[in-house]
User: Fold this.
Amino acid sequence: MEELLQTLEKCLPEIFAEKVIGDLIPGLYSTRYLANLRSRGEGPKHFKIGRRVMYRKEDFITWIKNRLEVTYYE
Assistant:
């Protein structure tokens, strides 16, 4: 998971459109899934420019970190 976070930190621009996630890391989150989360108030913080949904890198990465599930095996 740390590798994913490093990739996002390195490759995401400070402000980016929703489709960038699908282009950067296919299979991570689809635009449809993010739209569903937004409609339920569960997605990352976002704003709109016209019809385009935009995210701030810091907000998106914070949201990802909060969703991480850590499993400990004994």
